[in-house]
């Protein structure tokens, strides 16, 4: 029972409260942006507590990541906020979809920007996930532009991402230091996923159901 669960810990109920705000934001894009940021920050702190207390919590986040996710909301990186005079980016205006396959070896990641159902640009690569910190480090080694595939050298994806505004400029610096760009993952369930990017920004994704968007990692 929910009441008994709340006695056992002090995080499950406030986690659910934060998630309810984020579920609505992902579905309607009408929730107040400040409320969404507050919910993301609250969820980040609460999930840290939950993952410290429960051995399987982080593993569940990784398992739930499998599938496709459309970026709904982002505060933008600290770099982008500075360029906009401190203004935070909120509901993401274009169709950006990320896909994770934690069952592959190595685990696979794909990032695509779409116009309608047409992929203008897609990045392909692999990722590692630290179950202790929920840090997801990734590296893209191939790019597809308007259907034409190009193999990438180390750090090239970060440069393209920063130049196009799709990635943080901090990723370029990480590549120069032979370090991978990363997300500090917060949560993932059947509806939404949340994370803090390496550039410091918070983000919210909505799961793409198969009927909405059918694609593969191939």
TrEMBL record:
Coiled coil regions in record: none
InterPro entries linked: PAP/fibrillin_dom
Keyword Magnesium annotated: no
Keywords attached to this entry: Plastid
Subcellular location field: Plastid
This protein's record includes keyword Plastid: yes
Pfam families, per database record: PAP_fibrillin
Domain Plastid lipid-associated protein/fibrillin conserved: from-to ranges: 26-202
The protein, known as: Plastid lipid-associated protein/fibrillin conserved domain-containing protein
